[in-house]
Specification:
Radius of gyration of chain B: 27 Å
Number of helices of chain A: 10
Shape of chain B: globular
Shape of chain A: globular
Structural class of chain B: mainly alpha
Distance between the termini of chain B: 97 Å
CATH architecture of the largest domain in chain B: Alpha Horseshoe
CATH class of the largest domain in chain B: Mainly Alpha
Number of strands of chain B: 4
Helix content of chain B: 40-55%
Oligomer: heterodimer
Pfam families (chain B): SusD-like
Keywords (chain B): Signal
Strand content of chain B: under 5%
Largest interface: A-B, 90 and 93 residues
Helix content of chain A: under 10%
Protein name (chain B): RagB/SusD family nutrient uptake outer membrane protein
């Protein structure tokens, strides 16, 4: 067998012509577009509009008839005429999908939208965090990538944000069992952002994933009760195969560079000797200083191997994988090792089955920078004056004769931005995270009786994270004493989940009944402790016993949450055409202890009908049409600890509580309703359309109180957030001879509205009334997220320049200067998109495949403080342009560039209203070009080898913002749509090699 | 039918499973929902914690020290440093927060000027109230000491805002009306008198007994010292209202002096937040000046101390690299923080281990000197009290110069100020803005001259308590604090009259609008920084 880029083709002698008509079984309709191939050759054709075909073939040959949605048929050629009837592939339409709690259901019976992603689509253009690979591939989901670079978390919001104070990120579920989120504190001000860490899901090995199912609506997730409101990403992991042994290996190598950067100028130099701003004279020749030179080529090399083996009684899967990555900023590293083991076995005449899984993940992260002033080398790099020689400062430390070791060299001070030598920051302010995660699970399933089985599962999940911060001596005084500083934090999360579910399936005449009843317990313990401070006697000895105890920082906190639940779900089907689905769950949540509510009840009901079967209008055009509707109520448990008064301890002594203990709390509730259709046209076009509304009420508020009460705040339930929207996905497949084309489009639209904040509310204890019609969720000096009644979550407000009586920007006629208006914040827009589109195409031709994904996000606004500060320092292209133009035209006046930009970019945040950008962007998100080799006879033991070139974030077709609007420093709810010296998002180019033995 | 039967048969199994899962049921939920890292009601009963620890809380918040993880030194910065310190001429800001439109240029920042109110009412008052509830009847001496600390904290707050929701605190109401500053001051005197009486009786009954000594970082439980501090505080408050209510002022002042234990006289009487084996903190000014680099020596300090050749300059400030002392004027245009933070300006000479001083005996001598100047019986003559005040200030500050020579210097005067970054901020030596007051006492001088002399020396002596210095500047007009160069108040605050108070916190308008509006009606003008307080009548 020869190996080459062209597969060997055996051309048979064409000795006769076969012709005929292909029709559909039952309807007798002729089928156009059916592929007709002579077996074992490349000789083929396809049927025309009348279902007719004609093909010259060899002797004693076999013809293969295939078409998506139909069973493939092989027919021996016996004469010159061959009429074939194609059977509809019912399996394709009755696809089984995994739903909540791991319960498998026929897709046709579901009353809500479920979207499945195959592993291929996740590993093709692999990201260290596989969640990022879902962007644009699922409707109704808004995924923003964390700006922490490789291995960071993703912000995954389905069908809009719903909770004002709670979590709005999707719930992750692996093999039916919910995972703790492990999300760390997110930067939400202008200072923080260094030393980030990825969340729990980001460290999974994508190769272990069989498929991902997205339940974007609460109805689908209702069985998860609390936390289901945000939708669920369900991961099904791989298990061993039943026969023989397969070994898979893969290597993915990707190289990174910054994707979107602001524009810099290189014409004007430093204002005056020793200063850091660039409002000086035009340079004699353009500066060669290029801030982008600071970035290195990052890389990610991921190697993985998996073994799958077994018999029909016992199957085993094992995988190992390693990630070695470096970011685009020097000394930002990620190393990860994943090991996974799974064994499934059957006993007692296959009545008892057991499934055991063990996973271990070890992650080392270093210097994960999201944004902010502190420890951010990008600030001194971006603001570095053109014309100066950065190389002088690349030698970031110099021998200090009085101290007898090397100390930081940085003659420019902190500039009010806590600036240090950028190279010192990357080499001498070190943030390390070490994470060990163990997951163990076991499940037993027993078929008690025909159609009745019982499953018991238990899963233990433990994550131990050690975070260390080391600041070398001569680090800025705000962060470290003269000998340096050392901090050590431990965060330990343990979750025990166990459930018992009984499944029943029964067919009674025309009715099928399927029911589950079960109980579950989820127990999560979290322990966090930190100790650290300035170093005592020995510079740069990072050890706990070298910490100055007088100024040491100690902190410990944690929790123990438990949820106990019973649940039941039942589905009644009529002739496999109409289905009624009901579910109910009752949660007992520990956070409700000492409140008036002691448990939470969540119901859901859904109805679906295969309209095409019911009214029997299956045809060529309408091969399948399903209509569905569902309603559900789910919720979020309230915050723990607020119903029982305790006294915080400061420096070893308790102090008075700052909030009024809340005993009247209720859980937050989301009521949602969705309707949808799933249609197949011409058996090629697949349309899934869902429209939904949801209303989340009993929001938890923590309004402030007059300090004259002795309290800062109290807790109360009120308010309502509404979301409505549309999810659409359209798939189309077509074959043109050897060329297979498959195309997929997703469209997501969501509208969020703050129906009510805190209407006038009377506090029972005192009879006093409080109300709230706007809520400031924080931001920078120039940007805030403010919630207002009638507004929308994600509304961005910015400060402005002073205006005159006519509403125009006030320009002082004396010196042509503008001035800030500190008090007034105006609405600039919203950080959420109007709608998003993902457009994916793949082509296959004789082993070659080409795929690309275009993601478009339309609407929404972002604010760039980076640009403001760059303008103020005179390093931006805009500031050079303004100088060339002789000033900035404001309200008919030409305001001198320097004075203008030092106002609009002044202070630590500038004037937000001058730096609002459209967030609309269209990008080439993924590209892959591969070649697949199938070896009929093994080659070096290989059955299959695939080589691909891959690209991520290759190109922006449209983007007006000076940064990537899909990147976010904060993967929580607020502090969205703002850039405060974020690390740029990554552009990746690389290759992958995958093989199978 | 059949399904029902099957279900029925299996029901016991489900029941058993549920029972297995829920045997413990939800009994532990209260435990789980109780924060294990905080103190429970029961623990508060251990070792008198409910009084002792709340007493510690009060001490931590008079001048707020960092209370990690709740807040750091930015609280002292906004409440004390960017209010009193920069209005008193002690220190000058290096930073151009909010593009230069901030407190230093009279664009008062709500998050800053609301800080003092929160600390007083969220940290000091609830702690005092808890102590009152548990100790007023059973341990009146504990309640008395806590009350003195409360007044030390709260008089500073009313001197910032004026009316406060003070008298009714602890009633349980979530919204409270404001009381006039006069009512508050009268209550201070009543409360102080009651506390001093309780402590005096306690001391007579058991002379060697201490109060809360384990939790007292001021006097270690020494009752006599608490009485002297109470009397001294009363004297300070009395002098404060002398212009508006002279007879009340004289009565209270003379009763403080005539008390058998009297007022602070020796250096050891100083009221300062000491450290203990189990209590430590960084002086916030150290963090603000050396870590944040947000503040440096004030221009006025340079003008007076340099002009007087005052040796205390070296105790208060570090010379710059050239060995000079250069201050920063407030209310100026700052293009870039580094111009001033990294410029040739003198940093504060303060160590992280310095004690926060609540009141020092030098101040008490100057208060007595002023009282005597007004003809009151202050147990001494104004001249002697004035000179003793300077002597004890030299002593406390550790100044190395010859104090007697200093006292007899009748010629040295404050000098002009030169801003090395921007000459527009400089003040010529002959300017009216620079005082001609000298050091040496002069019996022949006018009342006003001698008052200026006393207040000027008190201003030097009580450094770095800018809050008290600003209050006395507002009452007397001394020393000569340079007016702001840039006034961003929009006409609300007069540049020449300077800032007179802080506005009520914006949150109060949101959460206690009826109450705060009562407060506004009790002001002598609108709720802004230009309105004078009750005692501010000259």
């Amino acid at each position: 067998m020869c190996i080459g880029l062209g597969l060997p083709q055996i051309i048979s002698a064409q000795e006769q012509t076969v012709s005929g008509i292909v029709t559909e079984v039952g309807s007798g309709m002729p089928l156009p577009g059916v592929t007709v191939m002579e077996k074992r050759t490349s000789n083929g054709t396809s049927t025309d509009f009348n279902g007719d075909f004609s093909l010259a073939v060899g002797e004693n040959t076999i013809l293969v008839f295939s078409m998506i949605g139909y069973e493939t048929q092989e027919v021996p050629v016996t004469s010159g005429e061959l009429n074939v009837e194609m059977q509809i592939n019912t399996e394709a339409l009755d696809e089984v999908v995994v739903t909540a709690l791991g319960i498998k259901r026929e897709e046709r019976a579901l009353a809500y939208n479920v979207q499945e992603i195959e592993s291929q689509e996740i590993v093709q253009v692999k990201d260290a965090n596989f969640i990022n690979s879902l962007a644009g591939k699922v409707a109704g989901v808004n995924i923003s990538t964390s700006s922490t670079g490789i291995g960071g978390s993703a912000r995954v919001v389905m069908r809009g944000t719903k909770s004002i104070s709670g979590n709005n990120n999707a719930l992750y579920v692996v093999d039916g069992i919910p995972l703790p989120s492990l999300q760390s504190d997110q930067p939400s001000d202008i200072f923080s952002g260094a030393g980030q860490t990825g969340d729990g899901i980001s460290i999974f090995n994508p190769e272990d994933i069989e498929s991902v199912t997205v339940l974007s609506g609460p109805a689908a997730a209702a069985l998860y009760g609390s936390a289901a409101a945000n939708g669920v990403v369900m991961v099904t992991t791989k298990s061993g195969q039943e026969e023989g042994m397969t070994v898979n290996f893969s290597n993915n190598t990707t190289f990174f560079s910054p994707f979107v950067l602001p524009d810099f100028q290189n014409l004007y130099g430093v204002t005056e000797a020793g200063s850091y701003s660039s409002w000086g004279d035009e340079l004699s020749e353009p500066s060669s200083y290029d801030p982008t030179d600071f970035f290195q080529t990052g890389f990610n090399v991921t190697n993985s191997v998996s073994i799958s083996t077994g018999t029909d009684k016992n199957q085993t899967y094992f995988s190992a994988s390693s990630v070695a990555a470096e970011g685009i900023i020097n000394n930002n590293n990620l190393d990860r090792y994943n090991f996974s083991f799974r064994n499934t076995s059957n006993f007692l005449d296959d009545k008892l089955s057991m499934d055991i899984t063990a996973m271990y993940m070890y992650t080392e992260e270093q210097n994960m920078l999201a944004q902010g002033q502190y420890f951010n080398p990008l600030i001194p790099i971006y603001l570095f004056p053109p014309g100066r020689d950065i190389r002088k400062y690349q030698v970031f430390e110099r021998y200090n004769p009085t101290r007898n070791f090397q100390t930081q060299y940085w003659p420019f001070g902190d500039q009010g931005f806590q600036m240090q030598n950028p190279y010192w920051i990357t080499q001498r302010n070190i943030f390390n995270n070490d994470k060990n995660r163990y997951l163990m699970s076991g499940s037993l399933n027993y078929d008690i009786y025909e159609g009745i089985s019982i499953t018991g599962r238990v899963k233990f999940d433990r994550n131990n994270a050690l975070n260390e911060r080391k600041y070398y001596a001569s680090t800025a005084g705000l962060f470290a004493g003269e000998n340096g500083a050392y901090y050590r934090q431990n965060a330990d999360t343990r979750q025990l989940y166990t459930d018992v579910i009984m499944n029943m399936n029964k067919q009674v005449e025309d009715f099928s009944i399927s029911a589950n009843i079960g109980a579950s317990l989820q127990d999560v313990e979290y322990d966090f402790s930190t100790f650290g401070g300035n170093l005592q006697g020995v510079p740069n000895l990072f050890a706990l016993h070298n910490i100055n105890l007088n100024q040491a920082e100690t902190l410990q906190n944690g929790y123990h949450d438990q949820t106990q639940a019973i649940f039941a779900t039942a589905q009644v089907g009529y002739k496999n055409m109409a289905f009624l689905d009901v579910s109910a769950r009752n949660d007992w949540v520990s956070a409700l202890a000492n409140t008036d509510a002691n448990s939470i009840f969540y119901p859901s009901v859904g109805l679906s009908a295969i309209v095409s079967d019911l009214f029997d209008f299956n045809s060529d055009t309408f091969s399948y049409l399903k209509a569905r509707a569902s309603y559900s109520e789910v919720g979020n448990a309230p915050q723990r600890y607020i119903s029982i008064a305790t006294y915080p301890v400061i420096n070893g002594y308790p102090q008075t509580s700052t909030f009024l203990p809340a005993t009247g709390l209720e859980p937050e509730r989301t009521e949602s309703f969705e309707v949808g259709i799933n249609a197949r046209l011409w058996n090629r076009l697949k349309i899934d359309l869902t429209a939904y509304t949801s209303s989340t009420y009993n929001q938890l508020f923590n309004p402030s109180l007059s300090s004259s009460s002795g309290y800062d705040s109290f807790y109360v339930n009120a308010g309502q957030i509404d979301n409505k929207g549309i999810e659409l996905s359209v798939g189309y497949d077509q074959e043109f001879g050897d060329l297979k084309w498959s195309s997929n489009l997703t469209y997501s639209l969501n509208r969020n509205k703050i129906e009510q904040l805190l209407p006038s509310y009377t506090i029972e204890e005192t009879g006093e009334t409080v109300s709230l019609d706007s809520l400031n969720m924080g931001g920078t000096g120039s940007y805030r997220m403010i919630l207002t009644e009638g507004g929308s979550m994600g509304d961005i407000y910015v400060n402005t320049l002073r205006r005159d009586a006519q509403g125009y920007i006030y320009v002082n006629p004396m010196n042509y200067s503008v001035s800030p208006d500190q008090e007034r914040f105006v609405k600039a827009g919203n950080s959420n998109p109007d709608y998003m589109i993902g457009f994916r195409n793949s082509f296959e031709y004789k082993g070659f495949n080409l795929g690309f994904l275009v993601n478009a996000r339309v609407g929404g606004e972002v604010v760039s403080v980076t640009q403001a500060i760059m303008d103020a320092y005179g390093v931006s292209e805009a500031s050079a342009q303004a100088r060339d133009d002789g000033g900035v035209l404001v309200n008919g006046f030409r305001v001198p560039s320097q004075s203008y930009y030092q106002v609009v970019g002044g202070g630590t945040s500038g004037i937000g209203s001058r730096y609002v950008y459209s967030a609309t962007n269209v990008r080439l998100a993924e590209v892959s070009l591969g070649y697949n080799l199938d070896f009929e006879n093994k080659f070096l033991g290989l059955k299959n080898l695939n080589f691909s070139l891959i690209g991520r974030n290759l190109f922006m077709f449209y983007n007006k913002a000076p940064f990537d609007p899909q990147a976010t420093a904060n993967t929580g709810t607020y502090y969205q749509g703002v850039d405060y010296f974020m690390q740029p998002s990554l552009q990746g180019i690389g290759f992958s090699v995958r093989g199978r033995f | 039918m059949k399904i029902y039967k099957i279900l029925n048969n299996k029901m016991p199994l489900i029941g058993a499973l549920s029972a297995l899962l829920f045997t413990a049921c939800t009994d532990n939920f209260e435990d789980y929902n109780t924060n294990p890292y905080e103190t429970t009601e029961e623990m508060l009963g251990y070792d008198n914690l409910s009084t002792g620890s709340f007493f510690v809380q009060m001490q931590r918040n008079v001048f707020p020290i960092a209370q990690q993880p709740e807040f750091g030194d930015e609280v002292y910065q906004t409440m004390q440093n960017l209010a009193g310190d920069v209005f008193s001429g002690y220190m000058g800001a290096t930073n151009n927060w909010y593009s230069g439109a901030n407190n230093t240029t009279y664009a008062l920042i709500p998050q800053w000027y609301g800080q003092a109110f929160s600390r007083a009412f969220v940290d000091v008052m609830p702690a005092w109230n808890s102590i009152r509830n548990s100790a007023e009847e059973e341990l009146p001496q504990v309640y008395a000491v806590a009350t003195i600390v409360k007044i030390e904290a709260l008089h500073r707050i009313t001197d910032m805002y004026g009316p406060l929701p003070y008298l009714n605190f602890g009633s349980g109401a979530l919204q409270n009306d404001y009381d006039s500053q006069q009512e508050i001051y009268y209550s201070f005197f009543d409360e102080l008198n009651e506390a001093i009486e309780i402590l005096t009786n306690f001391n007579i009954g058991s002379p060697d007994a201490t109060v809360l000594d384990d939790y007292d970082y001021i006097y270690n439980g020494n009752v006599e010292q608490w009485i002297r501090f109470g009397n001294s505080l009363k004297l300070r408050l009395a002098i404060r209202i002398v212009d508006v209510d002279p007879s009340k002022a004289q009565t209270e002042a003379e009763s403080a002096i005539s008390h058998p234990m009297g007022v602070m006289t020796s250096a050891s009487d100083i009221a300062a937040l000491n450290r203990g084996d189990d209590f430590n903190y960084n002086h916030p000014l150290y963090i603000i000046s050396h870590n944040f680099d947000d503040v440096r020596m004030g221009a006025e300090m340079e003008s007076y101390l340099e002009g007087y050749n005052d040796p205390r300059i070296a105790q208060y400030f570090d010379p710059n690299q050239d060995g000079e002392y250069i201050g920063i004027r407030n209310g100026i245009n700052i293009n870039s923080k580094s111009d001033y933070a990294d410029g040739p300006f003198s940093n504060l000479n303060i160590s992280a281990n310095a004690d926060i001083i609540w009141m020092n005996p030098a101040e008490v001598y100057f208060l007595r000197a002023e009282g005597n100047l007004r003809g009151w019986n202050m147990g001494g003559e104004a001249r002697d009290l004035y000179e003793e005040g300077i002597r004890i200030s030299f002593n406390i500050s550790g100044a190395s110069g010859n104090v007697e020579a200093y006292l007899s210097d009748g010629t040295s005067q404050p000098i002009g100020y030169t801003d090395p970054v921007s000459n527009g901020n400089s003040v010529g030596a002959s300017s009216d803005l620079v005082s001609d007051i000298t050091i040496q006492w002069d019996d022949m001088a006018s009342f006003e001259k001698n008052l200026e002399r006393i207040i000027t020396q008190k201003w030097i002596a009580i450094y770095p308590d800018g809050q008290e210095a600003w209050s006395e500047f507002r009452r007397t007009g001394y020393p000569h604090v340079f007016p702001v160069v840039i006034n961003n108040s929009g006409g609300l605050i007069s540049t020449s009259e300077q800032i007179r108070r802080l506005p009520f916190p914006s949150q109060e308008y949101q959460n206690n609008s009826a109450g705060v509006n009562v407060g506004v009606s009790l002001l002598r003008g609108a709720d802004n920084g230009g309105t004078r307080l009750w005692w501010d009548v000259n």
